[in-house]
Amino acid sequence: MDAIFKRRSIRKFTKNDVSEAQVEKILKAAMSAPSAGNQQPWHFIVIRKPSILKEIPKIHPYSNMLLEAPLAIVVCGDPSLERFKGYWVQDCSAAIQNMLITITDLGLGAVWVGIYPEESADADDFRKLLNIPNSVIPLAVIPIGHPGENKSPADRFNAERIHYDCW
């Protein structure tokens, strides 16, 4: 529960590296997410090359934090893996949330940078940059690193948004 409440969007990173063991834990957590019919329609692209990380802000206007991050993971959905059509976005989003909680638990920081369906962050540009097949859809890029900023937990509980039995 601590990691859930401590999780914040981190956009500044130190130069410290993220270990392979940490990346593996993050990806194991992602793949432990629930998915409709256990279809697991996800693929993950782990990016460590600075030259690639520096290209992403050129194609996505809200990803400048990648210039500091030592690592990013692009989460993609593969509709061909779906048994229940249309659920890949929910399934991959659950995987991303598991990643963010695990990243926080590991003492790292990250931010969810959406790609799909944002028109300004053209999925085709990501496909070209990362050699993603046309049938696979990039959903989000997650910059990951050691936090270069300290954000206090936020209490976002709002009782006015809770309805019982009906609206």
From TrEMBL:
Coiled coil: none
Pfam families: Nitroreductase
SUPFAM superfamilies, sorted: FMN-dependent nitroreductase-like
Any GO molecular function: oxidoreductase activity
Xref: InterPro entries: Nitroreductase, Nitroreductase-like, Nitroreductase/BluB
Source species, domain of life: Bacteria
Residue ranges occupied by any Nitroreductase domain in the UniProt entry: 4-56, 63-146
Database matches in PANTHER family: NAD(P)H NITROREDUCTASE RV3131-RELATED, NADPH NITROREDUCTASE
Protein name in the entry: NADH dehydrogenase
Species this protein is from: Desulfuribacillus alkaliarsenatis
